[in-house]
Write a structure and sequence with these properties.
Distance between the termini: 30 Å
Number of helices: 0
Order of helices and strands: EEEEEE
Radius of gyration: 20 Å
Oligomer: single chain
Shape: elongated
Number of strands: 6
Number of domains: 2
Helix content: under 10%
Length: 101
């Protein structure tokens, strides 16, 4: 007996390559707050370090975008790489495989 999980069926037609992740099943380097800069957390908006050198994170601007650096499952296809995800697709078949590099 298989212990694979299946997703609920979709009524959105046959699956196509996921438009969000382009079939990879993961996304990365997405700004958590698009088009918004925040006060740099390294120099606290001053643009320079305590020693007076230009801040390496914000390059002296005092503002920085908050970004994810890890690969995260695609929010649209949940890591399958196709959308809508077919009912018969098992988790093992998903494109997102965080244990592989």
């Amino acid at each position: 007996m298989s212990t694979e999980k299946h997703l609920p069926p979709s009524s959105e037609g046959p699956p196509k390559t996921c438009p969000e992740c382009q079939g990879r099943g993961w996304v990365d380097n997405r700004c958590l707050t698009p088009n918004h800069a925040h006060v740099c957390m390294y120099c606290f908006g001053k643009g320079q370090s305590v020693s007076g050198q230009e801040c390496y994170a914000c390059k002296g601007s005092g503002m920085i975008e908050i970004r994810q650096s890890d690969k995260s499952p695609c929010p649209l296809c949940a890591g399958a790489g196709v959308y809508p995800v077919p009912e018969s697709m098992t988790i093992r078949e998903f494109a997102f495989k965080p244990h592989r590099t």
